[in-house]
């Protein structure tokens, strides 16, 4: 039987460390929702973001805020290039799903090998140490990383949902996600919307990688594992639902981290692949929650009123 | 001479891998990156059965084929039940997950690898006999894929790949056809793995990582998908490339990333500038007419 304090400690730490999982899942789910692309090149963006911050802090010895700005700028530039040079060309050529998959996967692998060549294959972190000072709150140790990570993630998600709800561009993104051809008929510039989507996703990736790289060690191929987690969360959350992906990532992150209570630590990584498998086998359309907005939905589901009689019969 | 035999066997095994992968991705239109893991399953199954269970090597090799075939069905069945997109996602998870499993269980030798695998034919008939065996299997696999592609089944396969809806509307079951193609291609990869294990006699999980996925994909894309000789040309070229680089005497920490960059860089270049590969087939990357302009 585990001590309650230990369980609470693990749950708190799991909640804090699931923040970057949530950000990666939101980035992946958003691109899939709006552009309908499985963007496996997200792993490349993660690698670029991390090593940009690593160079600024460890090689140039500049402060953390410069590193954050540099990684954000470089990731946004890479997202821009990926959309304008890669995806836009692929759309114009009308290529198959297979082509897009192979392209995005190869981009990720290319960047990982490039990183391995430049930075080596041993693990790196943004700061020289990943140990943060802790404060006891009750009997729970809250590290100096936990609250800023939770705050930054909450702020980023809040800004994203406000952007989608209250700005014209956000509304256009929803329009393009629902029906790109109809959106284009209404004069929405799909090309611009796709670019904005990629840039928002890039910003989430950069923030997520800053949090991850200041808390854990990163290898050139780490991006691929982190992205697979985002894919599992996107499927479980229901493809097309960014909020669902965020909640699924939060739950999966807590389950994976808290699993240390019941399984040896060397099997924790394997859990990710079990999640992916279970997501595909049992929840291909996402986890369905009970309809708590029953009355509102019921009103919408009312049968349509009978059609007006033809003009000649009225006469 | 032993070095030369080793290269010929490597080339033969990669031709089997590339040709069987061409059956899956080229003729079947199924996207998966997990081909190296079926290669690994065949190698491990045959090695474990022959060394620890004392099964005769030819039977262990056959078991290697069967294990890869059954595992591929276990992967394809739940994924293809949903859609082809899920197979590509599941294949990444399957590849990385299975390698993680191999590293963590004791009977596979863990990350240190599995050694002292019983040899086959070499002691009795010499290394030349094993080279001939690999070349014979290679020729048989090329002939099998060539025959399938040109048979009635091959025509049904291309109909299914080009327009699945129309294919289903004439009463054919696309899902089972996909599973059959995937299982056969993966089983052949397993057989290649078994052949590998009993010649080199040592296997580690690191040999079947994502670099191998990139290498096999490069062989098929650069050589030319949906052609008989494309993967053969691709395998020959791509096997020659690492051999040429090895003469530069670079340290392994640099050699691995350079090989990876070459493989992935070549795929990206060919995809944009010569998508049909060195041995061209028709416009293989284009989506069916109704999806044009909207890759999903």
How would you concisely characterize the structure shown here?
The complex is a heterodimer of chains A (315) and B (296). Chain A is 71% helix and 3% strand.
Using brief descriptors, characterize the structure shown.
heterodimer, A: 315 residues, mainly alpha, ABC transporter involved in vitamin B12 uptake, BtuC, globular, B: 296 residues, disordered C terminus
State the helix count of chain B.
Answer: 12
Please indicate the percent range of residues of chain A in DSSP E strands (runs of 2 or more). under 5%
Rounded to the nearest angstrom, the distance between the terminal CA atoms of chain B is: 51 Å
Major sheet of chain B, described briefly?
A: none
Mean pLDDT of chain B: 87
Mean pLDDT over the full residue set of chain A: 87
Write down the overall geometry of chain A.
globular
Identify the most extensive interface between protein chains.
A-B, 50 and 50 residues
Rg measurement of chain B, Å: 19 Å
Number of domains of chain A: 1
CATH topology of chain A: ABC transporter involved in vitamin B12 uptake, BtuC
Radius of gyration of chain A: 22 Å
Question: What is the CATH architecture assignment of chain A?
Answer: Orthogonal Bundle
> Roughly how much helix do the residues of chain A carry, as a percent range?
over 70%
Number of helices of chain A: 13
Helix-strand pattern of chain A, N to C?
A: HHHHEEHHHHHHHHH
Molecular shape of chain B: globular
- What composes the largest sheet of chain A? 2 strands, antiparallel
Query: Going across the major beta sheet of chain A, what is the strand order?
Result: 1-2
Structural class of chain B: mainly alpha
Q: In words, what does this structure look like?
A:
The complex is a heterodimer of chains A (315) and B (296). Chain A is built from 13 helices and 2 strands; from the N terminus they run ααααββααααααααα. By secondary structure, chain A is mostly helical. Chain A has a single domain (4-314), classed as ABC transporter involved in vitamin B12 uptake, BtuC (Orthogonal Bundle). Chain A is globular. Chain B has helices at 2-27, 35-52, 57-82, 84-104, 122-125, 127-150, 152-162, 164-169, 174-200, 210-223, 230-246, 252-273. The radius of gyration of chain B is 19 Å and the shape is globular. Chain B has 12 helices and no strands. Chain B starts with a helix and ends in a 23-residue tail after the last helix. Helices cover 73% and strands 0% of the residues of chain B. By secondary structure, chain B is an all-alpha fold.
């Amino acid at each position: 039987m585990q001590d309650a304090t230990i369980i609470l400690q693990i749950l708190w730490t799991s909640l804090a460390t699931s923040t970057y999982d949530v950000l990666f899942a939101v980035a992946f789910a958003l691109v899939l929702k709006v552009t309908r692309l499985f963007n496996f090149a997200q792993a490349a963006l993660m690698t670029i973001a991390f090593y940009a911050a690593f160079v600024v802090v460890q090689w140039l010895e500049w402060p953390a805020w410069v590193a954050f700005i540099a990684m954000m700028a470089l990731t946004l530039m890479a997202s821009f290039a990926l959309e304008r040079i890669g995806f836009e060309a692929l759309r114009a050529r009308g290529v198959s799903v297979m082509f897009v998959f192979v392209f995005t996967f190869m981009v990720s692998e290319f960047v990982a090998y490039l990183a391995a060549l430049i930075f080596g294959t041993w693990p790196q972190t943004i700061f020289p140490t990943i140990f943060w000072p802790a404060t006891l709150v009750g009997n729970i140790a809250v590290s100096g990383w936990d609250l800023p990570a939770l705050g930054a993630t909450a702020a980023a998600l809040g800004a994203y949902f406000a952007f989608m709800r209250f700005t014209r561009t956000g509304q256009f993104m929803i329009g393009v996600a629902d029906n790109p051809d109809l959106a284009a008929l209404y004069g929405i510039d799909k090309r611009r919307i796709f670019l904005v989507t990629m840039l928002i996703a890039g910003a989430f990736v950069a923030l997520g990688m800053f949090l991850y790289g200041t808390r854990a060690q990163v290898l050139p191929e780490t991006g691929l594992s982190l992205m697979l987690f985002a894919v599992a969360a996107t499927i479980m959350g229901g493809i097309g639902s960014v909020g669902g992906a965020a909640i699924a990532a939060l739950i999966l992150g807590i389950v994976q981290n808290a699993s240390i209570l019941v399984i040896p630590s060397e099997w924790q990584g394997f859990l990710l692949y079990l999640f992916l498998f279970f997501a595909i086998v049992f929840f291909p359309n996402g986890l369905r929650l009970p309809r708590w907005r029953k009355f509102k939905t019921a009103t919408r589901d009312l049968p349509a009123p009978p059609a007006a009689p033809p003009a000649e019969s009225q006469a | 001479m032993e070095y030369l035999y080793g290269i010929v066997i490597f080339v033969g095994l990669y031709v089997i891998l590339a040709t069987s992968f061409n059956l899956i991705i080229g003729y079947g239109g199924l996207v998966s990156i997990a081909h190296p893991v079926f290669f690994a399953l065949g190698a491990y199954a045959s090695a474990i059965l022959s060394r620890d269970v004392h099964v005769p090597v030819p039977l262990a090799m056959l078991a290697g084929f069967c294990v890869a075939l059954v595992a591929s069905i276990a992967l394809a069945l739940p994924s293809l039940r949903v859609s082809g997109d899920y197979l590509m996602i599941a294949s990444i998870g399957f590849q990385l997950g299975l390698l993680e499993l191999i590293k963590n269980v004791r009977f596979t030798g863990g990350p240190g690898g599995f050694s002292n695998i019983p040899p086959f034919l070499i002691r009795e008939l010499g290394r030349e006999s094993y080279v001939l065996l690999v070349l014979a299997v290679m020729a048989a696999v090329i002939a099998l894929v060539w025959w399938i592609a040109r048979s009635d089944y091959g025509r049904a396969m291309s109909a299914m790949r080009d327009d699945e809806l129309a294919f289903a509307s004439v009463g054919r079951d696309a899902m089972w056809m996909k599973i059959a193609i995937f299982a056969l291609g993966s089983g052949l990869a397993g057989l290649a793995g078994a052949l590998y294990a009993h010649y080199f006699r040592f296997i580690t999980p690191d040999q079947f990582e994502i670099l191998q996925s990139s290498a096999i994909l490069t062989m098929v894309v650069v050589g030319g998908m949906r052609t008989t000789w494309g993967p053969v040309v691709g395998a020959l070229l791509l096997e020659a490339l690492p051999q040429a680089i090895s003469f530069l005497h670079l340290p392994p920490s640099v050699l691995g990333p350079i090989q990876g960059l070459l493989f992935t860089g070549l795929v990206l270049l060919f995809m944009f500038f010569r998508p049909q590969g060195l041995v061209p087939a028709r416009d293989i990357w284009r989506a069916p007419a109704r999806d044009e302009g909207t890759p999903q």
